[in-house]
Amino acid sequence: MKPTLLILAAGIGSRYGSMKQTEQFGPSGETITDYSIFDALRAGFGKVVFVISPAMEEEFVNSYIKKFPAGIKIDYVLQSINTIPQGFSISPERKKPWGTAHAVLMAAPKINEPFAVINADDFYGRNSFKIISDYLKSVEDSSLYEYCMAGFNIRNTLSKYGSVSRGVCKVDENGYLAEIIERVKIIDTPGGIVYIEEDNEVLIREGTLVSMNLFGFTPSVFPWLDKYFTGFLTANAMNPKAEFFIPIIVDRMIKDKLARMKVLPTDEQWVGVTYKEDRPHVLEMINNLIYKGLYPVDLWKSYDARN
């Protein structure tokens, strides 16, 4: 069974300042997401499901989705701040979605096979999709709590133009995730890579693996996401900024001994558009990869979904 690619595209990029999920970066109008889909299909994924916001639905259906060749299976679900269990009220000040784990939960009706999760605005590299696809295909029983993630070298994930947030990973002797902690305000300094906590700079060891939200799951994760989201709302429903993040849930499942997550190291260079200043670098990188022959100039013009 071919795994599914789940693309999280409903987030509002407050630091970037625009709807970056549909911004064009390739010479023929390709988005970063197009390159991820292209790489995933070549790596053996069978279909693509998007999580989008209601505000994006018209543009997505009438424009973006039509670019893909016949034979590529594309579907979508909506993530709304109002999609919560009965009995909860939310703060009128809330503007952003509930976070990445809530976005994954929204896709439960569309996915019955192992699946990978990615951010729409991150470029992961072909090998990253290959290692996740190979692992998911090895999980024969979709009910098993055997998950995986791509572990990126933290130095390959930084922005030159500001701080970033990353899920910093601790891996055990067997290559499984022992702990994942969301660190915010990570920057590169002359003294090394640090995260800032209460105005203190805490050094992060070189070579540390971090999560870029490229996870591999089976459908067994959905009931637990539902359970944990109810608990999250009990504590945070009226907090307008609280978010239900995938790394937090993964860490909880591991500590509760409900699942194991294999960390699959990748040496790929991550690039993304956290800030507007990142855009020229992304454009240059994509053009270099096209020049090297790794991508066609027009990504979908001659694509054959049967291959």
State the gist of this model.
With 307 residues, the chain is α/β, with parallel strands linked by helices. The protein contains seven helices and 13 strands.
Overall mean pLDDT stands at: 90
How many DSSP H or I helices? 7
- Given as residue ranges, the uncertain stretches (5+ residues, pLDDT < 50) are 13-20
How many separate domains make up the residues? Answer: 1
Sheet-strand content, in percent, reads: 25-35%
Annotated CATH architecture: Alpha-Beta Complex
CATH class: Alpha Beta
Number of strands: 13
Distance between the termini: 16 Å
CATH superfamily: Spore Coat Polysaccharide Biosynthesis Protein SpsA, Chain A
Radius of gyration: 19 Å
Largest sheet: 11 strands, mixed
Helical amount: 10-25%
Question: Based on helices, strands and strand pairing, what is the structural class?
Answer: alpha/beta
Question: What is the H-and-E element order?
Answer: EHEHEHEEHEEEEEEHHEEH
User: Within the CATH hierarchy, at the fold level, what is the topology?
Assistant: Spore Coat Polysaccharide Biosynthesis Protein SpsA, Chain A
Shape: globular
